[in-house]
Amino acid sequence: MNLSWLKGKNLILAATVPLVIIADQVTKALAVSFLRPLVAELQASERFVSVIDGFFRLKYAENTGAAWGLLRGASPSFRIPFFIIVSLVAIGLIVWFFRRIEPHKRLLPLAVSLVLGGAVGNLIDRVRMGKVVDFIDWYITAGGDEKHWPTFNVADAAITVGVVLLILEMFIGFKKEPVEEKG
User: Fold this and answer.
1) 134 flagged as catalytic
2) Which of these, 74, 20, 47, 73, lies nearest to 135 by C-alpha position?
3) How far apart are CA 165 and CA 183, in angstroms?
4) Which residues have a Cβ under 8 Å from the Cβ of 115 and sit 6 or more positions away?
5) Distance (Å, whole) CA 139 – CA 55
6) What is the DSSP annotation of the chain?
7) Of the residues 24, 125, 137, 156, which is catalytic?
8) Domain boundaries in the chain?
9) Which of 47, 74, 117, 155 could form a disulfide with 79 if both were Cys (CB 3.0 to 4.6 A apart)?
């Protein structure tokens, strides 16, 4: 077996994508096993596991929509195939883009690999269940009221970190243009 292709950006892809998918699917399975039963609790104060009081807790949620629950009210006969097709197209574009990354790029292969791993992780949920399992709940308490960021998962976090790295690469790339020396 010739593994000569497994270096540089391909090595980053081969290591990052499976790691993100495995971490995402394992944590979602744990959320289903340990957090989902808490949803049946009668007291709202018992439906989560506090990690950092006043900031971070684990709370089971199912998202039938896209980011921030977009299209969650759409008919499942439209919504599920739509999200699966959009995910497959996005994955295809990400792979196409990855193949064109220049060797001197530093953050880009990691950034794209994180986005790809996250996209595949959420696609697995959509294909299996028609929805995505979320469980990370960030919030702050202000004036006695809790203000929550939308609940998310490891795949969503990988996508977000990947996008941030893409933006950093854009700015770093502009700064690292070769400078011509005057002779």
Assistant:
1) yes
2) 47
3) 36
4) 94, 158, 159, 162, 163, 166
5) 5
6) ---TT-STHHHHHHHHHHHHHHHHHHHHHHIIIIIGGGGG-SSGGGSSEEEETTTEEEEEEEE-SSGGGTTTTS-HHHHHHHHHHHHHHHHHHHHHHHHT--TT-SSHHHHHHHHHHHHHHHHHHHHHHSSEEEEEEEEEEETTEEEEPPPB-HHHHHHHHHHHHHHHHHHHHHHT---PPP-
7) 156
8) 10-175
9) 74
Contact 161, 127 (CB under 8 A): no
* Active-site residue, selected from the candidate residues 53, 134, 137, 145: 134
Specify the amino acid at residue 54: G
What parts of the chain have a pLDDT lower than 50?
176
> The pTM is what?
0.86
Q: Write the pLDDT tens digit of every residue in 17-70.
A: 999 999 999 999 999 999 999 988 777 778 999 999 989 999 999 999 877 667
CA 164 from chain center: how many Å?
Answer: 12
